[in-house]
Structures are given as C-alpha cells and as structure tokens.
Amino acid sequence: MALEGGMVHSILVIDDDKDDFDIVCEAIQEIDPEIKVHYLSSYEDVLKYKEQSFDIVLLDINMPCHDGFYWLKAIRQNGNEKLPVVMYTNSLYPAHIARAYEEGANLYFSKPESFSSLTNGLNKLIHLDWANPLSITETYRQNGKYATFQFE
Q: Per CATH, the architecture of 4-146 is what?
C-alpha cells in the first residue's frame, strides 16, 4: 500500500537478532516517538501481524531457516507490491545488493556501526517520500547497477 503523503507511522522490523531490533527501536523513538515499531524474528510469527499493515518493512538478509530473500519473495507474492521494503543488513556483498533490488526491494541499507549513524540514517530513510517507492528505488540505480542507501 502506498503511503498517503509519504509519511511513515509504522515500521515492521524482520530480523533474527532481537538486539538489532532494540537498537532500531531506540533510534526511531529518538527521531519520532509517535512511530510504532513492530518486530518479527521468524516466519512462524507472521500470523501475529497478518491483518496489520505497515508503512515500511526493514528486512535482514542473514537469518536462519528463512532468509531475507525468502521473506521478500513472500511479501511481493502476497499482493504487497507497493509496500516499501528496505533490506537492512550487514551484508555488502554485491550479489546480495543486486539480488535484493531485482527481487523487489526498494532500498538497500547497510547496518551502520554507530548508534548516531543509525539514527541519522533512519531519520533520512523515514523522511524519504514513500508515496512512490519505485521512484526511491530508481534513485539508487546508476548505469544499470544498484547502490546502497547513502545517509551520511
């Protein structure tokens, strides 16, 4: 679902590392305490949020059982073509970056090493105009290749 006015009110973080979620949640609360942040750590938990919609999904790649590409495919095949999905991961492997965009990710955000960089990056990310996620994706395509989200 495209965001009306591009404003972010709800984020779903899909990551097997609860500590990463806690850090993202803390950073988002510093940016805007009104933004709701939800967490899924396994595909089996998906029924928890089956009826709920989110403005953005932050999706890790490296997870046991079902990796981020599995989740991305499931999201896109489930009729959520316009839901903004941001791959949020430690991987900077070029094949992962290309595959993420090719399989429907709107942005590729490498996990920063410091809390202040994370807060700055998430602040820039949530203030992008998500009313048209494909235009954001196209911003990161250069000469037929995709780039990671630049936030500093």
A: 3-Layer(aba) Sandwich (3.40)
